[in-house]
Amino acid sequence: MNLDAIREKLGYQPVLLGVVALVVSGALALAATSTHDAIAAAEAADLRNSLSDVLPKGFADNDLVKDVVTLQYKDKPLTIYRARLGSALKGVVFQVSERGYSGEILVLMAVDVDGKMLGARVLKHTETPGLGDKIEIAKDKWILSFNGKSLGEPPADKWGVKKDGGVFDQFAGATITPRAVVKAVKGGMLFFSEHKAEILGG
Fold it and tell me: Are 116 and 146 in contact (CB under 8 A)?
């Protein structure tokens, strides 16, 4: 029996293909396992940086990523990060979103235990460069106008852009974008007010 006949009989090509696939799968699994911890650590570090960005310096000394409560917000689970100084709960940080001109605008906001805004940052958006992107702290200081605000200051009906009778500035040629951010933050403030006991004591 010649070699070609043996190969045909054993079906060596499918076997060889299977071996190669097994080796490649093993290599990919090994690479995924070896990089998983590094990726998770990098993501956690990014999250911690974002959380500290909306809090005043020295406001909290705990690991916010490990002190969380989850509630339903707009029919979706929402993770709320709690900021403590020593054993005292000082405030919370969470994400809200609203539809802008070009898509969803994701905002990270922080409030103290009395419901006063500590800070807000836009994490993600697809608004028009040069117009709507002024909601980014790197492009404009507009997002800082939320600092110190609460549902009573200004009154609820003044939580809007000036074009709508509110107190927040709009951008020339891009009113929809700041309007969406104001709406998102106001919605977050209302959510905190309505679920304060669960958020602070959960």
Answer: no
The token pair at 107 is 């905002």
Query: Which residue in 71, 94, 114, 97 sits closest to 183, CA to CA?
Result: 97
Shared-domain flag, residues 39 and 125 = no
Are 92 and 160 contained in the same domain?
Answer: yes
> Angle at the Cα of 131 (from 126 to 136), degrees rounded to 5?
60
Domain membership of residue 95 (yes or no) is: yes
Q: What are the tens digits of pLDDT across the range 163-201? A: 999 999 999 888 999 999 999 999 999 999 999 999 998
Which residues are 101's β-sheet partners?
none
Q: How far apart are CA 118 and CA 15, in angstroms?
A: 63
Structural domain range at position 32: 3-52
Buried-state track 19-36, b at ≥16 Cβ within 10 A, e below 16: eeeeeeeeeeeeeeeeee
Q: What are phi and psi of 159, to 5 degrees?
A: -80, 80
CA distance 156 to 100: 21
Residues 103 and 163 reside in one and the same domain: yes
The verdict on 35 and 69 lying in the same domain is no
Only one residue has tokens 């009778």, namely 165
Query: Over 90: is that where the pLDDT of 12 sits?
Result: no
Give 52: exposed, middle or buried? Use CB within 10 Å, 0-12, 13-18, 19+.
Answer: middle
